[in-house]
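Field reference: sequence -> structure
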Amino acid sequence: MVNPSTVVNCTAYHCEGVNKSGYIVPDIEFDPEKVRMMVISEAAPTKPEDYYYAHGEPLFEQTTVQAFQDAGLDVHAISELVEMGVYFTTAVKCGKTSYTIKGGPIKQCSQLLEQEIEMFPNLKVIMLMGDVAIKAFNYVARRKVGKKVVPSGSTYKIRKGEYYYKDVRVFPSYLQAGPSFFIERSKRRMIKEDLEQALAIMKG
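Structure field:
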């Protein structure tokens, strides 16, 4: 068993444009060998109680569970998805202070994201939920395999391509964590389609 909060450590804390007091790394115990899918969203929530693994009914859990229900799973909590082998994290570990996130925090936090990815020897699928996740992951890919995995371009244009990081299938998609998920119906439909494909690979 492993707890990411004891493995993934930020020693910088000098990033501009993020709320450093909102720093969050998943604080859960699980078997890394059972993880088949990694879902990477944008940034930690403004309120820690809205994070994936928070107690009660966190917003990230509500929208994410709904996304997986849309894709055909009969689940009602993040814990059920974790039990199935899905791991949730954010590309940027601190909360946003504005609508956009500067490149510095994305690049800096990609080093932490790399530590997380390396924890999972049996990973089959990586879901990149939004532009920030895509950018952060491409920083990881450049360091590990010498080139970015996901090409530049609008998500709706690139999301149907087949991309691989080593032997892991990578899906660029849209942000599912937060209130925008319930508002943007066209993106919600595309998230559903992307998750359906990812789940088929994960189960296969």
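Note: The chain is about 40% helix and 15% strand.
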